[in-house]
Structures are given as structure tokens and as C-alpha cells.
Amino acid sequence: MALTRRLMLWLGFMSSLAFVLALLLPTPGLAASEVREFSDPVTEQRYRDLTATLRCPKCENQAIDDSESPIAGDMRERVYTQLQDGRSDKEIIDFMVERFGDYVLYNPRLEGRTLLLWGLPVALVLLGLLVVTLIVRARRHASARDLSAEERARLDALINRERTE
Amino acid sequence: MTRRLLLLLPLVGFLVLGSFLYLGLSINPFERDSALMAREFPAFELATLGDPDQVVDESLLEGEVTLVNVWGEWCPTCKQEMPQLLDLAERGVRLVGVDYKDTRDKGRDFLDTYGNPFEINIFDPEGTLGFDLGVYGAPETFLVDRDGIIRYHHTGYITPVDVRETILPEVEKWR
User: Fold this and answer.
1) Quick check: B43 contacting A, CB < 8 Å?
2) B33 vs A70: CB contact, 8 Å cut-off?
3) Interchain CB distance below 8 Å, A98 and B34
4) If one looks up domain B34-174 in CATH, what number appears?
5) Contact, A60 vs A103, CB < 8 A?
6) Which of B31, B128, B131, B136 to mutate to test the interface with A (most CBs of A within 10 A)?
7) Residue pLDDT, tens place only, A31-45
């Protein structure tokens, strides 16, 4: 009985987790309509990744692979030609940031002024863990330690009564 | 007592988060500084709108404070902006146009219809100079100082109020 219940709980938890993870998965860009020829699948994947992480400067909440705006088309074109020229991902991203600013980065860089942005979630998780540990510890000790001699005697009596009954 | 106060922590957290989100509502995402601020005007080599054989480059902008306005015949707000640019030209501000992603005929027609405040127009049919300027829509205006450094950037339509309150003071500041 306890086992089935535990199994059900576990299944419920895992399916909710899967659902949340599915929501977090990026949806493939649908708007980019150009047909691109790539010499190898690695470059093609890099093109997909780059156009999915560069943000369209005109449209606020779309990556350039998801936007019909002319500037997004121009940016895809530049990403493509620069990949053909053998430029690295970093060079291509730097090229875009030089012109359009940090705004085009969906993944902000780790630097002085983004420390809070990157650090805060980690700090909060650590703080949460600390609080939980402290609470658990306090509870564990509290039950045994805080009994007076009188209470202990009563507790022993109760336990003994149960055993003999 | 301290335990009671601890219970207020989630409320405090909520209020802090709420006020950040509330402030976020009034931020205009289009009002952001150009990535080119305080940097040199990008290098280019393009023909002028008037004469396909006349090629100009970034040295065009040296020696005098210049407003570079990126426009196109296809851009409706550029038409509404023209009276303000003509006003600026009349007040002695040097204006250089970038005819962005346009055709020569349409660009010339535009100037015939709405007036020409520009000393010269750089013809940028492919949008290459526009791309190097980080232009993502027209009109956009850049103030370039006498050393060719970008000092001010205005995204979108310049209103008569903008002319008085920001553009003219900025021009004076860098003169």
C-alpha cells in the first residue's frame, strides 16, 4: 500500500517535471524562410544556435530566427556569410554586439554589471538550502534535547505502557 | 517577537519584486543607447544619391558637427520628420542623409516632394552602412562631432519638441 502510494507520488512528480522542462525547451524558429546550403551539419547547427540566441533589435521578444523584420533577415544573412568565411561563434556575436549592443544577446555575458543577474539565482538557492538545513537541524535536536527530567520520565512511562499492553 | 517579524519576510520579498516589475512597466525598450556611442563613425565607401560616380567615405564627416539622418522613401515617419530637419538646416546645422535600402529614383522623388535639408546624401541601397551603424529601422539620427565621433543618437521620428529640447542643445554642446 505504502509502496503504491509512493510510486504514484513519484510518477506525479516526474510528469510535472517533464511538463515544466518541455515548456522551457526552445521552440524552433518558424519565420526564417530562407533556404540555406551548408557544407556540413556542424555549421548548420551553429547557424541554428546563433540565430536562436541573437535577439532581434526591432522586435523586443523574438530571436532573429523567429522574426520577419527586415533587420532580422539582414542579421541572419550576416551570420550565414560569416560562418561561410570561417569566423568563430564568438567573433560573430562580438560583431553583432559591436553594432546593436548587449541588447541582442539572449544570454547576457558574465561581466561586472551582469554579476547580480547571474549571481542572484545561485545566491538565493544557496540561501534557501542554508535555511532548510538550519531548520531541519534545529528540529532534529529540539525533540530530544529540550525535555526536562520530568517530561522524560513521563515519556518513558508512556512508551513502557504501550509495550506492555 | 523576532519569529513574528520573520513571517513578514515573504511579504517584503514580494514588495521588492513587485516594485521592480512595476518600474519595468514604464521602461521604453526602444530608448536605449546606441552601441556606437562615443565611438568613431563606421568606415564606409559609398556613392552619393545625386551622382553614382561620386564616392564618399567617413572623412566626409570630419571638421564640422554633423547630424547624420538615416531615411528611406519607404519610411512613412521619415516624411513627417522632414519639416523638422528642414528647420534644423535653416538654423545652420549641417545635415548629411543616408538613403537606406532605397532606389535612386524613389530617393530623389522623396527629396523633390518633401524638400532637401541635406548637404549630401549617401546612397546605401543594400543597407551596409545602416547595418554598421546598428540601424534597425528608419528614421534614426546620429550626431557626429568634428573628429568623426558619434555623440548622440536618436531612434525614430524627431518631433518639433525634440528639435528645441534635445537636438539643438546637443549640437551646441559639441560645437
Assistant:
1) no
2) no
3) no
4) 3.40.30.10
5) no
6) B136
7) 556 889 998 999 999
Give B-chain residues touching A103 at CB under 8 angstroms: 32
User: How would you label B110-138 residue by residue, b for 16+ Cβ within 10 Å and e otherwise?
Assistant: bbeebebbbeebbbbbebbbbbbbbbbbb
* ipTM of the prediction: 0.86
Domain ranges of chain A: 2-107, 113-164
| A102 interaction partners in chain B (CB closer than 8 Å) | 35
From residue B140, give the alpha-carbon distance in Å to each of A51, B78, B104, B112: 25, 9, 20, 21
CATH assignment, A2-107? 1.10.8.640
The CA dihedral of B150, B155, B156, B161, to the nearest 10 degrees, is -80
Per-residue pLDDT tens over the stretch A62-73: 999 999 999 999
Domain ranges of chain B: 34-174
The C-alpha cell that represents A93 in the structure block: 556575436
Instruction: Tell me the β-bridge partners of A63.
Output: A55
Whether the CB of B24 is below 8 Å from some CB of chain A: the reply is no
Q: Quick: pLDDT tens for B93-105.
A: 999 999 999 999 9
Query: Are B132 and A99 in contact (CB < 8 Å)?
Result: yes
Residue closest to B78 by CA, chosen among B100, B63, B52, B55: B100
pLDDT for A111: 85
User: Which grid coordinates are listed for B97?
Assistant: 542623409
